[in-house]
Request: fold
Amino acid sequence: MKIAVLSRGPQLYSTQSILRAGRNRGYTMELIDYSRCSVLLTAEGPQISYQGRVLDDLNAIIPRIGTSATALGAAIIHQFTLQSVFSTTAAQPLLVARDKMHCLQHLAGAGIPVPLSAIAGEEDTLSPLVARLGGFPLVFKPISSTHGEGVMLIDSWEALQAARDEFAFRQERALLQEFIPEANGSDIRVLIVNGQIVAAMKRQARPGDFRANLHQGGSARAVRLTAIERQTVLRAADLLGLSVAGVDFLRSERGPLLLEVNASPGLEGIESVTGKDVAGAIVDYAASGAMARQGALISA
Reply:
């Protein structure tokens, strides 16, 4: 069994954890920088070349696609699947999950509860939007941010206009979202692999901040989920077609409110906090998927 991890960060904890888990299971593991892959469309069929060789001996891939290369990563994943290589993450779900508003549209459209959210149009639409979202404070976040970067708590018209002008100048889209005070600066991150909850942690923002991300100085501990929380996060991952997902939600007076579904969730925080072998679960899923794919091809 030969499994490749698609990653541009060989030094990253998640990448190394997955490689180590695969080698501990006796698999041949390879690290591939997907940004250095070339896609070949030939009369003989699709091919991918990397460092001067054609990649035609892989059984499965585990994509770890960064936000700055989502489109490229999706194209490489799609090419591998055309070659009947099993992937733990499909291309289209990756694209949907990376756009926060698109993701929330899918979830809300299926009846999964999310915070009140909006993308502002022209300036004269701001006043009714702010009122509809419950007034200030509001959460202002980039459409494709990670680790809480660029996320702000807006408490005035002046601050909202300044943030909006800055994003317009950078030609970036931003999401406006209601603030949930009863969450008390915390959220829940759940790791799902192949329809099963592998680990869950509660993240708490540092004093003076409202962002619970560990990269922003937050803390975390393992947490037990309620039945409705389990049902909600599993349904969200299934709806988006993500077999490996990090699902984030807030505990509110209205019940769990889905914040986002991450198609390439980091493993360091949740493995350290919960002691769960999330990387191993991902590798096991890749191996079983590859064997099932191979069996289907033989029987066909």
